[in-house]
Design a protein that fits this description.
- It contains 16 helices and twelve strands.
- By secondary structure, it is an alpha/beta fold.
- Strands 1, 2, 3, 4, 5, 6, 7, 8, 9 and 10 form a ten-stranded mixed β-sheet that branches.
């Protein structure tokens, strides 16, 4: 029998309406209070989950130190930043301008930035890990052709530099230290040469004015600065003389930041092509480094974006074509960030690989929350269940009382009270305070009550009016034996 049938049956057996007012409904807990609390907890959990997802899906903005202003390095990083923004990438860049690679390294070491562009041959911050090589720089040592009326320079090897003036391009002390490394490798005391530094926009005029006997430039292949300086060193059609660093292998072994390489014939341009033959030299790299604490997922995403959008950045900054993957070898001078190395080596973890543990624990947590929620819902409904059990016991008491009453009015009152108990029981079932088993037990009691009411009404209708007025039948006790009169 469904709930509607139960309620309909109870109402169908009601006595005359208005004869006896229905008793007040028993006090019971607010309907659905536990449900509302449970729904509130679920809603709070959903809001927390939505907030966490919102934060996770927000792009990560990394601050990167790079300088000096207007340099190719700054232009490349800005081009990458714009490309990341246009493509709505997960990782964004915020440029923090500095005076140069040394200042960028200092900002990185102080934890003021997340990324930095640094020179690999300078002191590398201890927490620096490479995510990409921004460019590789060739060291070019050369002697300009003699001016008109001057004798050709006798400097044809590095050993011959002793006692001469050497012009170093760039105001930074880094290139001076680089020259000293080369001189010491050849047993030349740096104090026995005179070093003159020129700004990048001064080198061409300095070469034309013959302000030094030899020059050192360090920059990427195809560097505009190196090209202009070499062009200024041509006199009467005579080409500059390039000084080979034959000890490049030994320098690379002693200083891992340097690599032994060659300036290929004709790679520096010019007519005729410069140089006219391969020249051995050393190179070093400018790295984009990240803090070791940067998450692997973020570092992998950054590296992936750099190489995926490099072509787009070349349109704004042609120097972006020089970007290379980091060295993932274990003995690299600047180790690759684990996330970047995983991307370069094709070992990047998938979403499930990275978050499987979290997903598993989340499932366990949700299961535990479900159990706790079920217990909490049951706990919140305990008073409602107890109240309903009391009402069911009251229905059983009325069943006994109905069999003894001699008044139709009392039967009507009990029927009205049973209707209230039925309504309360149905509400408890809807709230989940009682289960189907309890509802079935209540149905049995209600059927018995209805049968008792019907039977007693039949008895009262056949009973003389005087006997009905005498009141309910009572058991009599005589000689220890119970007798019903």
């Amino acid at each position: 029998m469904n709930l509607q049938q139960l309620f309909t049956r109870s109402m169908a057996t009601d006595g005359p309406t208005g004869a006896v007012s229905a008793p007040a409904r028993p006090k019971r807990p607010a309907r659905g209070a536990g449900i509302f609390l449970l729904l509130g907890a679920v809603l709070a959990a959903l809001l927390v989950t939505a907030g966490a997802l919102y934060l996770l899906l927000q792009p990560v903005t990394l601050r990167i130190a790079v300088g000096p202003a207007n340099s190719d390095d700054v232009k490349v990083i800005q081009a990458l930043s714009h490309a990341f923004s246009r493509e709505h990438s997960n990782v964004r860049l915020r440029v923090v301008p500095t005076d140069g690679a040394s200042a960028s390294a200092a900002a990185f070491a102080s934890k003021g930035v997340d990324l930095a562009v640094i020179r690999g041959d300078l002191e590398v911050p201890k927490d620096a890990t490479s995510v990409a090589i921004l460019r590789k720089n060739l060291v070019v040592l050369w002697v300009p052709a003699p001016a008109k009326g001057k004798k050709k320079s006798k400097i044809t090897t590095i050993q011959a530099l002793t006692g001469h003036r050497i012009g170093v391009v760039g105001r930074t002390p880094a290139n001076v230290k680089l020259l000293q490394v080369v001189l010491r490798q050849y047993g030349i005391d740096p104090a026995k040469v005179e070093v003159v530094q020129f700004a990048t926009n001064e080198i061409a005029d300095a070469v034309r004015a013959n302000k030094a006997d030899a020059y050192l430039t360090a920059g990427p292949l195809g560097s505009k600065i190196t090209g202009e300086a070499l062009t200024a060193g041509i006199h009467e059609g005579a080409e500059p003389t390039f000084l080979a660093i034959d000890a490049a292998d030994a320098i690379a072994q002693n200083f891992p930041a340097y690599e032994s390489t060659e300036i290929s014939a004709g790679s520096l341009g010019g007519v005729p092509p410069r140089p006219d033959d391969d020249v051995k030299t050393i190179s070093f790299a400018h790295h984009i480094v990240a803090q070791k604490s940067l998450s692997e997922a973020t570092a992998a995403a950054l590296t992936r974006q750099i190489f995926a959008l490099r072509q787009s950045a070349i349109a704004d900054a042609p120097a972006a074509q020089r970007i290379e993957p980091p060295d993932t070898a274990k003995n690299a001078d600047i180790p690759a960030h684990p996330g970047s190395a995983a991307y370069v080596d094709g070992e990047e973890k998938s979403f499930l690989d990275r978050y499987s543990d979290y997903i598993w624990w989340s499932i366990l947590a949700l299961s535990a929350m479900g159990s706790v929620g079920a217990w909490l819902a049951s706990y919140l409904k305990r008073d409602e269940r107890q109240n309903n059990a009391t009402l069911r016991n009251r229905l059983l008491d009325m069943l006994t009382q109905a069999r003894r009453t001699n008044s139709h009015e009392e039967l009507d009152a009990m029927q009205a009270e049973a209707d209230v108990i039925l309504r309360d029981t149905l509400h408890c079932f809807e709230d989940g305070a009682i289960d189907e088993g309890s509802l079935t037990a209540f149905n049995v009691a209600l059927d018995q009550f209805h049968a008792a009411i019907a039977d007693r009404r039949s008895v009262l209708m056949a009973m003389p009016v005087a006997k009905q007025a005498a009141g309910p039948e009572r058991p009599a006790i005589a000689a220890g034996v119970i007798r019903v009169s």
